[in-house]
Design a protein that fits this description.
alpha+beta, YaeB-like fold, 2 helices, globular
């Protein structure tokens, strides 16, 4: 279960199914990813076709990334309690 968010729109989208803070073109895919992440029991559960799951740039070993579209990524850290600091960003 997701423990915390950095992006307020992601929390709103997961809780209500909608958010004006997440681009309309991305909402459906982001919601699918958030539901998968919410159900994940380890980071590797996100290693699904099309998500391009990977550790993020050798910074914090707990930081991971999955693709949304184009340059957009969902970034998250993994703690003993599950995903934390979930964010939607254009890191490149």
């Amino acid at each position: 279960m997701i423990q915390s968010f950095q992006h307020k729109g992601l929390k709103e989208l997961l809780e209500t199914g909608r958010s004006k803070r997440v681009d309309a073109k991305q909402r459906a895919r982001v919601l699918v990813i958030l539901n998968l992440l919410d159900d994940a029991t380890c980071p590797e559960d996100m290693a699904l076709p099309g998500l391009r799951f990977h550790p993020y740039k050798n910074t914090d070993p707990r930081l991971f990334s999955v693709d949304v579209s184009g340059p957009w990524r969902i970034l998250f850290k993994w703690s003993d309690d599950g995903p934390i600091e979930v964010d939607l960003a254009q890191p490149h």
